[in-house]
Amino acid sequence: MSLRIALLGLLTVSGPSSGYDLAKKFEKSVAHVWQAGHSQIYPELAKMTADGLLAVGAEGARGRKIYSVTPDGQAELRRWLLDHSPSTTTRSETALQSFLVPLLEPDEAVTVLRRMKTSAQAHLAELEELRAARNAIADPAGRWGMFGAYALDLGIRQTRGVMEWADDSIADVERRSGTA
Amino acid sequence: MSLRIALLGLLTVSGPSSGYDLAKKFEKSVAHVWQAGHSQIYPELAKMTADGLLAVGAEGARGRKIYSVTPDGQAELRRWLLDHSPSTTTRSETALQSFLVPLLEPDEAVTVLRRMKTSAQAHLAELEELRAARNAIADPAGRWGMFGAYALDLGIRQTRGVMEWADDSIADVERRSGTA
DNA sequence: GGCATCATGTAAAAAGTTACATGATTTA
DNA sequence: TAAATCATGTAACTTTTTACATGATGCC
C-alpha cells in the first residue's frame, strides 16, 4: 500500500511523469521515509494503471510512458491520509544494535555506539543538504510548497536525537564500567 | 539477517528456550525495534539449527524443542554487532504521512497531525510501562542487566521527539493558513 | 565507434504477513 | 467436559532486494 501512496503523492506534485522520472525523484525526496528501486516501481505503476488509479498518456520519446493520477487515484491518496492511522512500529537495524549492545564488553559497546553516532552525523549532513537544496527551489507559500518539508524536519530532529542518545549511552557505559 | 540476530540475542540472555518462549519474549521486548510472529520464528529457528548456529536439546513436555546458542551462533552475533554497520534507512508509515500531509487542506492537515500526536502519546505510554516492568525485574548491575535498556531509552526519546514535532508542525500549518 | 546515461522491464530469492490446521494439557 | 492456553507447524500471499537483460539516444 505505502509504495502506491508514495507514488500517488509524488505524481500529484510533479505532474505527469514517466517511471524513470519517478524513480529519480523517489531517490531524492521520499527516500528518507520510504525506499523503492525501479524494479519495484515499474510493476507497481502497471498495477496501479490496471486498478484505475493512474492513466498512461501519449508514449514519449524512447518509449517513455507518461503516467498521471486519475480522480480515483486522488481519492485513494486522500482516503489513506485522512482515514488510515499509520502503524507506529519501527524496524530499524540501528535500534536492534542498540538493543543488543549490552551483550558486548564495555569497551566494545562504546566502539559500537561511537560508530552509530558517526553514521547518524553523516545521515544528518545528508538531510541538511537535502533541506538546503529544497529551500533553494521550492516556494514555501506555493500550492504544495511544504510537500516533504515536515518529514524532513522530523528526520533531522530524530537524527539529532540519535546523536544525543549515543552520547548519553556512551557516558552511561563508561560510568558503569568505571572506565570514565 | 536481523531476525536471526534478534533471536540469537534473546536466546543468549534467556538461556535455552523453546520457540514458543522466544515468540513470547519477542513480543514483550524486542518488538519495539523488530517484529516477528511465530510463523516467521519457527522456520527461522529450524534454519539456524541447520546452519549450526543453534542446537536442539532434549524435547520437553508437549513436544517443546529447547534451543540453545552454539559457539558458532555466539560468533555470528558478535560479528554482526562489531562489524556490521546498520543501515540508517527508515521505513515508516508515520513519516510517509508527514511527508504527504501538505497535499491536504490546512484544517485536514491539522487533523492528521493531531492524530499522529495522539498515537505517539499512546506509544510513549506503552514504552514507559515496558520500562517500569523492566526496572522491577532486572538488576542493572548484573551480567546483562542493561540488555534492551538503551534501545528502550532511544525509543522513548524518539517518541517524545515525534510529539514535539507534531506540536510544532501543527503550529506551522496554522500560522501559514492564518487560522491561528 | 564506444561510452555514458536514458528507459523499461523480468526473474529469482529473501523477508514478512495473514490465515489455516492440529493436537496436548491445564483449569474451572 | 468445555474453554483457555500451550505448542508447533504449513500455506498462500505480498513486499522487498538483487541480479539479469535489452535497446535507444546523445556525446566525444
Automatic annotation (TrEMBL), chains A, B:
| Segments passing through the bilayer | none
Alphabetical list of Gene3D superfamilies matching this protein: 6.10.140.190, Winged helix-like DNA-binding domain superfamily/Winged helix DNA-binding domain
Give all residue intervals belonging to the Transcription regulator PadR N-terminal domain: 7-78
Q: Which Pfam families match?
A: PadR, Vir_act_alpha_C
Supply the SUPFAM superfamilies for this chain: Winged helix' DNA-binding domain
Origin: domain of life: Bacteria
Q: Domain Transcription regulator PadR C-terminal: where?
A: 90-172
Q: What's this protein's name?
A: Negative transcription regulator PadR
Q: Which species?
A: Planotetraspora silvatica
What gene name is given for the protein in this entry? Answer: padR_2
